[in-house]
Amino acid sequence: MSAFMALGISVLPNTSDVTFYSSWYNEGNDYNSVTGVFTCRIPGIYWFSVTIYFQVPGICRIQLNGMGSVIIQAYDGAGTRDTGTTSRVFRLKQGDRVNVGHCFNPNNTISGNTANSFSGVLVKPDE
C-alpha cells in the first residue's frame, strides 16, 4: 500500500517548489517531507489532492517528474486571501516523482499554516 497526507507548507530555498513539512500519515514512506516529493514505489493509478491557502492571488502546479501539470489557483476577484484546491489522477511507473511546484511568487503568496495539505493514494496497482 502507498498513501500519504502532509500538512503545513514552506517554500524550498532558491526554487518555486514547496514542501508540506508535517507528514500526518505516510504509509510506505513514499513521501519525503524534506524535499516535498512523492516517489512511486508501486506502479499503478494514483490520486493526488492539493489545497493551498494563498495570501494574495496565486498559482502552483502539481508536477510529474518536474513538469507542471494541473494548476492550483486561487483568485477571489478582490485580490484577497483565498484557498485553491485541485486533484489529479496519474498512472505512475516505479521511480516517478510527484510534487507541488512552479508556484508564482511563492514567498509572497503562500501562507505557511496547516490549512495547506498534499495527499496521495494508490488507487489500483498495476497487475
What do you see in this structure?
The structure is a single chain. The chain has 127 residues and is mainly beta. The chain has one domain (3-125): Jelly Rolls, CATH 2.60.120.40. Helices cover 3% and strands 56% of the residues. It is built from 1 helix and 12 strands. It is globular and about 45 Å long.
Reading side by side through the largest sheet, how are the strands ordered?
4-1-12-7-10
Straight-line N-to-C gap: 14 Å
Q: How is the biggest beta sheet arranged?
A: 5 strands, antiparallel
Q: Detail the poorly predicted runs.
A: none
Provide the residue-averaged pLDDT. 87
What general form does the structure show? globular
Q: What CATH architecture would you give?
A: Sandwich
Instruction: Please tell me how large the radius of gyration is.
Output: 14 Å
Output the structural class: mainly beta
SSE diagram, text form:
Blueprint: E1 3-7, E2 10-11, E3 18-19, E4 22-27, E5 31-32, E6 37-39, E7 44-54, E8 58-64, E9 67-74, E10 82-92, E11 97-101, H1 106-109, E12 117-125
Antiparallel strand pairs: 1-4, 1-12, 2-3, 5-6, 6-11, 7-10, 7-12, 8-9, 8-11
What is this entry, summarized?
The chain contains 1 helix and 12 strands, in the order βββββββββββαβ.
Please supply descriptive tags for the structure shown above:
single chain, about 130 residues, mainly beta, Jelly Rolls, 5-stranded antiparallel β-sheet, 1 helix, about 5% helix
